[in-house]
Amino acid sequence: MPPTTDDAGVPVELSSRECWDYVRQASVGRLAVVVEGAPDIFPINFAVDHGTVVFRSAAGTKLAAALGDIPVAFEVDGYDDGLGRAWSVVLKGAASQLGSIEDVLDSETLELFPWQSGEKNHFVRIEPTETTGRRFRISDAARRQVPSAQPQDLPE
């Protein structure tokens, strides 16, 4: 089993549990899809639901690409300036639109409110087939360059 601390100053691979702890703490993630043969990235707010990620979307490029035949990637990251650590988690897998009325009604109980106004009636679930993450110390030189916006709490 790999070490779960990054005291040595090298990136530490996170366990699946640690990855999901970080995903649950994040409020914004990035959805990576392929649009007309090229990668594209969309910021999304989301909710974690039983080992999956659910987001809402309007019809358009993001939705069409996410529901296409090519798997998607979802990423969250953050840092804690006080501890001098940063982390990144990537989930890869298929995205599907919630189709049954039961799934849609269940998703309504998730705290998932679109930031942008408009019709966001498409609920999409990402079911990861791969979950990876790492945590690492931020170098002192880089820490002087990182704005102290909102440090994330790190799970123990």
From TrEMBL:
Listed transmembrane segments: none
SUPFAM superfamilies on file: FMN-binding split barrel
Compositionally biased intervals (Polar residues): 147-156
Pfam families per record: Pyridox_ox_2
Chain positions covered by the region annotation Disordered: 136-156
Protein name: Pyridoxamine 5'-phosphate oxidase family protein
Organism this protein belongs to: Arthrobacter gallicola
